[in-house]
Specification:
The chain is of the alpha+beta class. The protein folds into four domains: 59 residues, Arc Repressor Mutant, subunit A (Orthogonal Bundle), CATH 1.10.10; 48 residues, no CATH class; 75 residues, Roll (SH3 type barrels); 87 residues, Alpha-Beta Plaits (2-Layer Sandwich). Helices cover 45% and strands 23% of the residues. The chain contains 13 helices and ten strands. The strands form three sheets. The chain has a five-stranded antiparallel β-sheet. Strands 9-8-10 form a three-stranded antiparallel β-sheet. Strand 3 and strand 4 form a beta hairpin. Helix 12 crosses helix 13. The radius of gyration is 28 Å and the shape is extended.
């Protein structure tokens, strides 16, 4: 019988005032009989818990009783840094310790403040996934995260876009972007980025991870993202579209959104003309086809021709 369950039961009763055996059993995924045994053990240990019978009854602590808690575990301290990020904590295998840490934190607060803190946590949710896309659950994520946290080196086998590589790396940080996990790690002192789902195998290596002097994860990531996006968007397409079409395009593409912020409809036609950065003809065709007749591509000619061909194929397919 885990002592942690007894402690959590005591904290829950302190925070919520009264809970039935059925509610506690559901919370801890045990039987009602197990909850009754836990309550008996708490009473035997001197905790002033009593039961009220009836439809609205349940277990509760005597008025004014508050437990004194000290000493968060290492995992619980880690989890507090992820407060409110339940999905991320679950990916890292810290969901249960996050729950325990938040209970301890709430119990340590004055009653009124603890109630407010619970209300806040019930009203805000962080969902790191993108629309219509399943979040990744890389098999080696917990090992990689432990290496980042403990500053230990890793030996990884990694599938890059070119080939399979093996190397020893110095983990520096983890980033979640659009539901995907990325590891920032140094090789010979130079930070690089690895998609964790592409790590085929990983093991702890000897030695402590070496952190480049002055390295700041947030600054490095921001610079990398800007550089990466700039390197992809080497061409432009001139388009004409209505204000509603511009809104739909901006929702789909951040680079287009940045351009369209400064564009205004023509006074006569009401249309907007803009030069939009594109990655490739294929990428642009896919983007603009999704908008249908809401957008007209004026140039380059090759992109305009591609859309005309796709339109003809769609017309043949659906026009009979």
């Amino acid at each position: 019988m885990p002592t942690s369950r007894l402690l959590a039961t005591m904290i829950l009763l302190q925070l919520r005032g009264r809970m039935s055996a059925t509610e506690l059993a559901a919370k801890f995924e045990v039987s009602v009989r197990t909850i009754h045994r836990d309550i008996d053990r708490l009473s035997a240990a001197g905790v002033p818990v009593y039961a009220e019978r009836g439809r609205e009854g349940g277990f509760q602590l005597h008025d004014g009783y508050r437990t004194s808690l000290t000493g968060l575990s290492d995992d619980e301290a880690r989890s507090l840094l992820l407060g409110g990020l339940g999905a991320i904590a679950a990916d890292l295998g810290l969901a249960s310790t996050l729950d325990a840490a938040q209970l301890k934190l709430a119990a340590s607060l004055p009653p009124s403040l603890g109630t407010r803190a619970k209300a806040y946590s019930d009203r805000f949710l962080f969902d790191p996934g993108d629309w219509y896309r399943r979040r990744e659950h890389p098999p080696h994520l917990r090992l990689v995260a432990d290496a980042v946290w403990n500053e230990t080196r890793l030996r990884v086998r990694y599938q890059s876009w070119k080939s399979m590589v093996e190397r020893t790396i110095d983990p520096l940080g983890l980033v979640v972007k659009a539901g995907a996990w990325y590891l920032v790690a140094a090789v010979a002192g130079k930070p690089r980025i690895y998609r964790v789902s592409n790590v085929i195998d990983a093991a702890t290596a000897e030695g402590d991870a070496r952190r480049p002097r002055g390295f700041v994860l947030e600054d490095f990531w921001a610079t990398h993202v800007k550089s990466f996006e700039t390197s992809l968007l080497k061409e432009t397409a001139t388009i004409r579209l209505s204000p509603p079409g511009a809104k739909r395009l901006a929702e789909r593409n951040a680079a287009a959104a940045a351009v369209l912020e400064d564009c205004r409809p023509d006074a006569r036609s009401g249309q907007i003309e803009a030069r939009i950065p594109i990655e490739s003809i294929d990428q642009a065709a896919e983007l603009f086809l999704a908008l249908g007749s809401a957008v007209e591509v004026l140039s380059p000619p090759v992109l305009r021709q591609r859309l005309a061909e796709e339109g003809a194929r769609l017309s043949a397919l659906y026009g009979g």
